[in-house]
Amino acid sequence: PSGKGRRLPEVYCIVSRLGCFDLFSKILDEVEKRRAISPALVQPFMRGIMEAPFPAPGRTITVKNFLPGSGTEVIQLCRPSDSRLEHVDFECLFSSLSLRLLLRVFASLLLERRVIFTADKLSTLSQCCHAVVALLYPFTWQHTYIPVLPPSMLDIVCTPTPFIVGLLSSSLPRLKELPIEEVLVVDLGNSRFLRQLDDEDSILPHKLQAALEHVLERRRELACEKGDLPNDSNSLSAVVSEAFVRFFVEMVGHYSLFMGGLERDDESPSSPTLPSPSCPSPSSFQREAFRKAVTSKSLRRFLEVFMETQMFSGFIQERELRRQGLKGLFEVRAQEYLDSLPGSEQRGVNKFLKGLGNKMKFLSKK
To answer: What residue ranges are annotated as transmembrane (predicted)?
Structure first.
């Protein structure tokens, strides 16, 4: 606040067990707008918000509040139907990076490289880091992940292990003095790489990358077909998320054909306990048969490297432990993919690139 003498900054904080970042950000924007007029306007607004029922997934609620000079304002608060998309703002990524650069970053992360994002604003860093990690679904980043790295911890970027780190642009001069090697440094403010390995554009299989790029170039058009509003952020996020899910389905959607038997002889009702992740049972996944089932040479070459990552190992291990328990979007799309194959191909042939864009049935308006 303004005034003389020592003053502490005012902080408004929303605490919730739900990660609805986009919804909460909208509320805080409204709080900030009212605080700029008068602190007395914040409490009535927040009371109205707290008394309103929290929107269910896929639903929108309306909150009315009086604002001097504007009259009664109607504020709509909505939640996406898919909980994975609640805390993701993919559009922040697309507004910060060109599509070609974004796919290069994505490819680097698939090989578990070291990536540093820099930006002038904390919000940009945080949103873009969250979004780029969300693009990896159904895989999970297994290494160091610090969306906003404090300057006092800058030495962490010298570690030889994989990481995703967000850094304020003010720390760049110090970063240049550090002995870092084989690191991709991404400038979100100017859509450019400050450091790179120069092979980022050749990591992904060419046809698969081109198909993904084509769908993402049409993301707004496809979102309009799917949603009711031209700039519906939920529809846009759903289109982007689905495009990357389809990409992974084309790449590894046949994994379940090579998982081995669903039951082991030593399992019985009296011993239902699953092995813990720290002490897993021997893998029943047929790695080589899985890779060789792919007809595309470029995809086979990529899988040879990708299958050595901890991301891929964690993906297979989770499915070995939980077996039939996974029913997420990826599993649904992978099963649809397998069902679309002729019966003779079910036991080991992954038809490469069956049309990433054409198969996105969810995009057609119901």
So the answer is: none
Cβ neighbours of residue 365 under 8 Å, at least 6 residues apart?
A: 225, 226
Structure confidence by residue, pLDDT tens digits, 31-42: 998 898 888 889
H/E segment holding residue 130: helix 122-134
Strand positions, DSSP E, the chain: 60-67, 71-78, 114-119, 144-146, 163-168, 183-187, 192-195
Residues 6 or more apart in contact with residue 246 via CB below 8 angstroms: 212, 215, 333, 356, 359, 360
CA distance 58 to 16: 18
d(CA 198, CA 201): 8
C-beta contacts of 94-100 below 8 A and 24+ residues apart: 94/219, 94/240, 96/124, 96/128, 96/188, 96/189, 96/191, 97/128, 97/186, 97/188, 97/191, 98/191, 99/213, 99/216, 99/217, 100/201, 100/213
Burial of 249 (0-12, 13-18, 19+ CB in 10 A): buried
pLDDT exceeds cutoff 60 at 237: yes
Cα 28 from Cα 83, distance rounded (Å): 21
Give the tens place of pLDDT for each residue, 312-332.
Answer: 999 999 888 876 666 778 888
According to DSSP, residue 167 is labeled E
